[in-house]
Design goal:
Order of helices and strands: HHHHHHHHH
Number of strands: 0
Distance between the termini: 33 Å
Radius of gyration: 20 Å
Shape: globular
Largest sheet: none
């Protein structure tokens, strides 16, 4: 009999990975100091925007690959790219914090990737379908898809804009310690 993976360990690893990726939420804490240190303009916000725009693009490209090559390899690759991106930011900005954070996050995500397992095959061969099932090509031609996509895009864009400037908002309205509030927002957005 094949040994079953510990699902709780997989869940814990997935939570650590998501929390690690939540480091992107800290952008607003660094934006102001980076602008002041290097004389950069508000155009620095594009770095944050491009970074988060890559998330859905990578999901579209690599999502189907998970079943083909396995989640371990995809998460491993993601951890390497995410960590290297942070470390490279440290070299570009001369900020050792980014180098340290990138190294730590790279290690956490890579270690956690080894705990990822493919979901077990369903024991039942019953396939549930309905008359509304469509292929992706047909789905892309429907108005409902594009309306839903527009709603998703507008909602996430607004949310990401808010997160990208959260430190300034927290400071402007004296809501407390910006780092703590952003950390809490990131943690609650993990699930």
């Amino acid at each position: 009999m094949e040994k079953q993976p510990n699902r709780w360990l997989i869940l814990a690893a997935a939570i650590f990975i998501n929390i690690s990726l939540g480091a992107g939420y800290m952008w607003s804490l660094f934006q102001g100091p980076l602008q002041q240190a290097h004389g950069w303009t508000d155009n620095i916000s594009w770095a944050y925007s491009i970074s988060f725009a890559m998330v859905p693009i990578s999901m579209i490209i690599f999502g189907p690959k998970v079943d083909q090559i396995g989640g371990k390899k995809i998460v491993f690759l993601s951890g390497v790219l995410f960590g290297i991106g942070m470390i490279a930011t440290g070299f570009i900005t001369q900020q050792s914090f980014f180098k340290l954070m990138g190294s730590v996050l790279l290690l956490i995500i890579i270690i956690c990737s080894f705990f990822m397992e493919k979901a077990p095959e369903q024991s039942s061969t019953t396939i549930i379908s309905s008359s509304t099932d469509q292929t992706p090509k047909v789905m892309l031609k429907t108005q409902k898809f594009w309306l839903l996509w527009l709603i998703y895009t507008l909602a996430t864009t607004g949310g990401m804009m808010l997160i990208g400037h959260a430190a300034g908002i927290v400071t402007e309205y004296s809501l407390g310690n910006a780092a703590v509030i952003i950390m809490l927002c990131a943690a609650f957005n993990t699930g």
